[in-house]
Amino acid sequence: MKNTTTFSIPVLFDVHSFQADLITWYSKIKRDLPWRVNQDPYRVWVSEIMLQQTQVDTVIPYFNRFMERFPTVYDLANADEQEVLKSWEGLGYYSRARNLHTAVKEVVAEYGGQVPSERNELKKLKGIGPYTLGAILSIAFDTPEPAVDGNVMRVMSRVLHIEEDIAKPKTKKIFDDVVREVISHDDPSSFNQGLMELGALICTPQKPKCGECPVREHCLAYEYGNQTDLPIKSKKKKQTTTEFYGLVIQNNQGEFLIQKRPEEGLLANLWEFPLMPKEEPSIEEWFKEYNGAEIKVNSKGETVKHVFSHVIWEIEIVFAHIKSGEIKSGQFVTAEELKDFPFPNVQYKMMDNIFRSNLG
Length: 360
Ligand code: SF4
Known about the structure:
Number of strands: 7
Strand order of the largest sheet: 4-1-6-5
CATH topology of the largest domain: Endonuclease III, domain 1
Bound molecules: iron/sulfur cluster
């Protein structure tokens, strides 16, 4: 057996029998999911992007609606970005939707509407990282390419007793190499999906169900009895908290001021009630400087909290009205019209609070 960079697969590990046990189990338990009805690479691609950081049950209705609205790459490529973001609303991690939209336009422009099956072409498309690349190549095109995510690293670290720290980016290469060695060339799609499913359903982080595990007889961690010591994962840095005032500003007609976020960065191009950094000394002065008009603060509401992957936002709601002057950016909309704009989840948390306060 060939050596990987820093990990050698044990000589007694029976690769073929491991593949067979995993694939047989997967073919018995696999769920009927809407993206599994065929191997259409566009559907596989959309599902894999949606499934990043998101549970299967949450993704299903979004996927179905998305496919109804954008059934082909052409429908998605021709859509307006605001409409794409609206379809993604609530799923979070909106850069996924923007990147998918950009990449699909490229598929239409450069590849005649055919999702490329060639590794180097596919990996150049925006938003397709190594995991998604492996998932699309194996599931849609039957190519023996690793698709390694946290689930797969957990399973393989236990099966082969790999003690490298999975929090370190370079460790990912070890698992890529390992999976590349053990993946089935006859059915790479079922192999990769089987590994993912095993990690999701059986080989779970805290209490792996080894009694029900189809690959138990291949598993070194099971043999040594230290399953839950693996994978090794050093602690992440603590998330930082940023505090804002969320300004709910109404005009004389009772309409609300909303604004579009910048084109780059977190929650780009989504809409929001203006957020003001809390360290600023005066809300009224900050708003006049920032947006031209004078406001009068009426009261303060609850504080809502939203946890992103690297930061936590805490937003204290502030109710205010326009006293004089014209705003320089944003627009006023009625409470009814709010639903026509794509907002991130954190803003919906604000809206819950706002409308519970009987405003609007
Ligand atoms: S035997 Fe237990 S630890 Fe090993 S792969 Fe199966 S569930 Fe995971």
